[in-house]
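To: structure desk
From: M.T.
Subject: fold request, one chain
Message: Could you run this one when you get a chance? Sequence is below, nothing fancy, just the single chain.
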Amino acid sequence: MKRTRLNALPVLASVLVLSACMTVDPAAERAQVMASVAERTGSVADPVLPREGETVSEARAVSLALTNNHRLLARLNEAGLARADQVMASRPVNPVVEVVTLPGDGHGRVWDIDLSASLLGIAATPWRAEAAQDRYEAQQAETVLAALDFVAETRRAWVAAVAARQRLDLQQRIRDAAAASLVVAEEIRAAGNAPIVELERERIFAQQAELDYLEAEHAALQARLDLGRQLGSPVSADQLPVRLEPGEAPLDGLDPQAALSVSLPLASARSSVEAAAGEAGLENWASLLEHVELGGVFEREDGDWSRGWMLEFALPVFDDGSARRTAAQLRAEQAIHQHAALAFEILNAMESAQAVATLAERRVMHIQDEALPTSERLMDATMRQYNAMQVSVFDLMAAVQMRSRTGQAYVEALADWHRARIALDQIRAGGSPAMVAASDVRDTAPTRGEGDH
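Reply: Done. Structure tokens follow.
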């Protein structure tokens, strides 16, 4: 005959009361993530789409993307899911009630009420709740990290789109100059004043300029479509700025300790270490007390109640839990090594980003102060000599091409400078330098298994 087992009811009741206070509010979780993003980057969501002809600045692009990119919005739901996982992991397994009634052979019915719950599942709830809190904080950090990286990726897409448009404009000038040069060459050849090789050279030059223009046109279209996909709404070429502008001041370097203190990948890894360490400590008990139940026994038969108590536990005969304890310790050590590796990778990525920023800054300054003025002087001198009929039209077109090529190099240097600026801002906000993600330290916790009984 079954027995009624009433486990530590006061302890269970207090745990249930405390865990019942925890709720899941997805909207509040998303708002918390967005508030952290705004605090770290100064970027806020703006649901108003740009009007026709309105220039979409870098900041405006980020605001649009934060509002309209559905992949990001889906990713933000991870915050609510992490909260739900925390709530579930912070509560003990529900007790089981079993009621059985049988005929009593004329002596009244026999009632058997069985109420059972895991003793370890109840006693270990505070430790499990603490580990669940660490997991929640790690997931929160990863969700904010994903949003920060998304902001940086949007900025890079904007820089790429504007740079591609600027390169297209320069390539169009080369194409137009090549077409004009070809017309002049054909006229000179028709007058018999130039060999055929000069005409063929200009034709090749014009054809190559046309091919370069088509390639630049395709690149500009692709960059604009990539930006539109990032924004979650289309953007036309007229809505982009016509050129990238250099920064007004040199890029500031990063303090390594300050960057590490705000790093979200490192914060997530740190929470994972704490969670794995706590779960390893709990597993030392859970592996030995795999199944323990303690309670009172109440039986009613023939109208009489009998009382007593019971203790039920599993004997560690075939499995002493050593493998589970070892696995938990290995997970904790794994998390520690991953945290140390991530810290080193972040410092290495910071050094790389600063080096790229310094080099890009030097390139911009050199082209701006030296190469562009030199190409301008060459262009002016060639034009004066052409007007004085001292050089041919072919020399003039060569000077035009050189001036345009220098302009393209300047665009590339500016784009590199802006990408370096975005990378430094990303690290400064706590994002992923060189896309170092905290996902390497995910899912190191053991699942809830037989140790909950």
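Reply (cont.): The radius of gyration is 35 Å. Let me know if you need anything else for the meeting.
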